[in-house]
Specification:
Length: 136
């Protein structure tokens, strides 16, 4: 029986000079390949669920390439503290999960939604409605 690989924290560097290193949750896929389990701050071209290839050197994984995109569509909104903690946002996140998507809340107010292409959730319309409720 094969064990499911565990998510680990990996020190990943996205620039060749080694200045931008972040610790990301990843799941090992094969030698030098990992599935990203959270949105990187230093590389907007990589998203949750993508599989990347790295070269490891002295405890740092240097990004080489994206081997496979996740197929998820990414949306992001910067929310007020009040909106971020609201029941409306909590309900929206539950709908995202129910439709096979995932969500992240970064630094408290940055809401990042990842949805399958044909999820049945109109994320932009729903968020516009929710945000409008906090602007009035």
């Amino acid at each position: 029986m094969n064990a499911v690989p565990e998510t680990v924290g990996l020190h990943i560097c996205f620039d060749e000079q080694g200045r931008e290193i972040e610790i990301l949750d990843v799941t090992p896929v094969s030698r030098d390949k990992y599935r990203i389990e959270e949105t990187p701050i230093f590389n907007p071209g990589i998203a949750l669920g993508d599989i990347i290839r790295v070269r490891e050197h002295e405890g740092i994984a240097y990004y080489i390439e994206t081997v496979q995109k996740s197929g998820l569509i990414r949306y992001a909104w910067l929310l007020s503290k009040e909106a971020a903690a609201s029941p409306e946002i909590m309900s929206f996140k539950e709908r995202v999960n129910a439709h096979g998507g995932r969500w992240e809340q970064i630094f408290g107010g940055l809401l990042v939604i990842h949805l399958p292409k044909h999820s049945g959730v109109d994320a932009e319309r729903e968020m516009s409605r929710i945000i409008a409720g906090f602007e009035s």
